[in-house]
């Protein structure tokens, strides 16, 4: 099983972030958190890196179903989606979402399979739409 569901876009970083937010919203996900790794590492460690944004995406009905099954699943929520520039190829941006099937593997809880499957279907559709949009 792959760790991530991903696509590569030929666009600007800002455009990729905007398209990613829209694609997630169309699949019922809101962005609860945002971590700008580039800015954070520069501020804390004075380290330079490419544009790298972590979006914490959540689909409330799916999250509710998951925590109803296993309260500890919150440790794996929200679903992280990464938007990152490729420093070796200007104008290339990678968008990756955590594969929700990891929830089932990590917990060993078979009741989470249906939730992970639906989350995976929605995240795959969001990622696929980005490829269509670029």
Automatic annotation (TrEMBL):
<dbReference type="InterPro" id="IPR016796">
    <property type="entry name" value="UCP021774"/>
</dbReference>
<protein>
    <submittedName>
        <fullName>Uncharacterized conserved protein, DUF302 family</fullName>
    </submittedName>
</protein>
<dbReference type="InterPro" id="IPR035923">
    <property type="entry name" value="TT1751-like_sf"/>
</dbReference>
<dbReference type="InterPro" id="IPR005180">
    <property type="entry name" value="DUF302"/>
</dbReference>
<feature type="domain" description="DUF302">
    <location>
        <begin position="35"/>
        <end position="100"/>
    </location>
</feature>
<dbReference type="Pfam" id="PF03625">
    <property type="entry name" value="DUF302"/>
</dbReference>
